[in-house]
Amino acid sequence: MLQNYITSLTKIVGTLGPKSCSVEIIEACLKAGMSVARFDFSWLDGEYHQKTLDNLRMAVKKSGKLCAVMLDTMGPQLHVSNNTGNPIELRAEQRLIITPDMTKQPSSQVLPVKYDGLAKAVKKGDTIFLGQYLFTGSEKTSVWLEVVETGGADVICLVKNSAVLSGFIITIHVSQVRINLPTLSDTDKQVICDWGARNSVSFISLSHTRHGEDVQELRAFLKANKLEDIQIFAKIENVEGLKHFDNILNEADGIILGRGNLGIDLPPEKVFLFQKSAIHKCNMIGKPIMVSRVMDSMTENLRPTRAEATDIANAVLDGTDGILLGAETFRGQYPVEAIETVGKICAEAEKVYNQPSHYKRLVSSILESMTHAEAVASSAVRVAAKVKAAMLIVFTSSGRAARLIAKYRPVLPVFAVVIPRLSANSIKWTFNGTLQARQLLGVRGVYPILASPYGGTTGGYSEEFGLKVTLEHANSVGLLKQNDKVVIFQKIRDSFVVKVHEYV
């Protein structure tokens, strides 16, 4: 019955783009299991993304499926603007010049990039990757370069493999070399204040996060623009970010492991170590983490490779909260099938996830410093397992209680009833809670329901009424049947309590 309503407990983020922008395709993606829609501002402009987002809203209404919105910043990424869109053919062993001279037209001999510090940053023997999708999945359209020498502001490179560069935007990544550009660019700030604020985005993915200070800067910027409720996911995709991971994790609301660039910055044999370490650290403090670049082959094929399927399953077994699909849904030929496939793989892995081991490890690591709220939340998960509950219900306003429950990785779905809070500004009193509900769509196993502020009473919200509505909803979608047990976690006055309820 779980499969009729919930694809998997692991969340799926889909990047919307040219192959996934219509109402029909987005609706199919939602029904397939997408819970967060990502808009990548490294590609295309705000006008294009707005049309796609408007289509997403229509798809949400038609499908009845909730979906959060993630804005992905550009960050300090170098691009070659190929305005003509004509393919550029490069052959192995030829020389190629990368220049800051923007009067030059992109060709097989020279590529202009809007950054005059590259020649000072690199040295002979350094590695540069070049392509529309870089060198980790579409090798026929990506190039590996070796720096031969620098001449003034130009960088002369040796082409190591033959390829044809395509597309209007060609990305440049210099392996393990710091590009002296701000993590949060002026363009990013403008997009956040305009597109992000107008569309009430749930998350900002801060690309190329290198230090905890990067997250602090973005958070201060959001606060200054009255957008402080937006959550920040730090995207780790270079060695510098890995070196400062603990500090970044302390500052961010969540982590995205961007394995595309990370797989270039690190030797391939090292990536899995950092992935396992990052997931473990996030699990131990209860912050969500997502893994990207999982099924490159499904950009052009209907099925993933066996290695990719195993990779996704292992990420779930390690404890990831979500799988982020990029090219697979943005430009891939099979965006809906990619989401369906990820959901099926995650669901199979969840069946054999060692939750008792995770629970014991987590409790033992924080036993001395455990708060009352966390002690009761962990008990709720244990009770749910003991009584073989069909689901767990938590009442929350900020989402914190639901995250505490999710931290202990229950093997059953967690329905978070988000109670709206009354807030005031200089103009009027309003209820909020919609954003907090959507943000829970990025947390493993949590499914939010936004409660009516006037549910069941004339004086305000009634938790009894909220429980009744939640149980009826769960029954209507096949998650709950007569005599099933439900564990309820809620705050009564100043104390958190756990109750077992039998559905009749």
TrEMBL record:
InterPro entries: Pyr_Knase, Pyrv/PenolPyrv_kinase-like_dom, Pyrv_kinase-like_dom_sf, Pyrv_Knase-like_insert_dom_sf, Pyrv_Knase_brl, Pyrv_Knase_C, Pyrv_Knase_C_sf, Pyrv_Knase_insert_dom_sf. Keywords: ATP-binding, Glycolysis, Kinase, Magnesium, Metal-binding, Nucleotide-binding, Pyruvate, Transferase. Its EC number is 2.7.1.40. Residues 374-492 form the Pyruvate kinase C-terminal domain. The keyword Transcription does not apply. It catalyses: pyruvate + ATP = phosphoenolpyruvate + ADP + H(+). The keyword Magnesium applies. Pathway: Carbohydrate degradation; glycolysis; pyruvate from D-glyceraldehyde 3-phosphate: step 5/5. One of its GO terms (molecular function) is pyruvate kinase activity. Residues 10-339 form the Pyruvate kinase barrel domain. Pfam families: PK, PK_C. Its cofactor is K(+). Belongs to the pyruvate kinase family. This is Pyruvate kinase. It comes from Kalanchoe fedtschenkoi.
